[in-house]
Give the backbone structure.
Amino acid sequence: MTQNLTQEYLKSILKYDPEIGRFFWIAARKKTTVGKMAGCIKKDAYRCIRIGGRDFLEHRLVWLHVNGEMPNDQIDHVNHIRDDNRIENLRAVSNQENGRNRSKSKNNTSGVTGVSWHKGVNKWQAQINVGGKHKHLEYFEHYFEAICARKSAELHYVFHENHGA
């Protein structure tokens, strides 16, 4: 059942609760109990569920359960919370679209994605990555101007509204 996991089979073994975005076992299986929450959180903070000896990412199973097919590309967590698998928080996207809804980097010091202080010119720098290419937008005397340039570029290149949050 691992190669051709179907919506029908998935619904025969798991019940999806859309309010909390979790699956619960409805069929007895090895090491599981009917009614028990399925799956676990992996080191990368995504939830996964083992079915037929194979691990599946829970958000992909939610997509299959609700829409009847596995997504072609990626599933984006709109709010950036990797274990929030409520269907309204998930959207099927391309790799490029997924990259346009990334969280702010943990080592960001300016507070805004794509804005940084450039010591060499003593100005704020705005930049953006589009289609795998780095684009320098401009240097600015004022922080606010750099933020405006970056946000304008995000709108121009159709980044998601949560990008950098």
